[in-house]
Amino acid sequence: MTAIEQIENDVALGLIMRIKKPMLLFLSDGQGVRSEFMAQFRISASENNDVHFAEGDPNDLPGAAACFQVGEQPLLLGIHRGLEISRSSRPWASDVKLALAAVRDAQKATDSDGISEIPTPTKNAPKAVTDDSFQSDVLEYETPVLVDFWAEWCAPCRMVAPILDRLAEEYAGHLRIAKVDVDANPQLSQQFRISSIPTMMAFLDGQILFNQAGALPEHTLRKICEQLIEQAEHRVASPQTPSTS
Q: Domains of the chain by range and CATH?
């Protein structure tokens, strides 16, 4: 059995990312891969049992490709607890060792902080919203609300989840992050015509300001949050959709 796991779809990757072990993930369609890197990647995979090694074609992993902003060049990612720790575009052999050191440092930091594999929810965690509570928790809420329409089985949703957890903590009191389980809340899914998940929708004073499907990267989600907060402060008469460019 090879020490490098072949990832064939986003669902499989999402399941792997839930494990506690750090991971080195190599994404490439086979073009532009340095032979010295591939040799070192294979050697390191056989010698380091404390780190999960995986590779896949980004064309087969559209959710991961969007979430991690995969371009045309091969990409090596160091990942721990679903979060990107390091990245190297068209990596060299030396980048493997650097990525190993980075994910191990991240693991030591979380272990020393006593962080469990499933984080304990805090008062600033994303708000679970249902068909019955959407009116009060979103439409009538006093701050802007960024709503994540998601499902447990959706791998790209799980990739975005840690980002939303961070944003909920950082922007607490200024913006609410809410989550709607589309399987448990079919009324909302039908009302907003959710056909793909994750879908992000932003609301202010009961109005939809933003609506986009797909696993958006952190910098885009952060920019949306900041623009929503700024817009709420000014309470313009005719709100404009936040730009993600």
A: 4-112 (3.40.30.10), 127-234 (3.40.30.10)
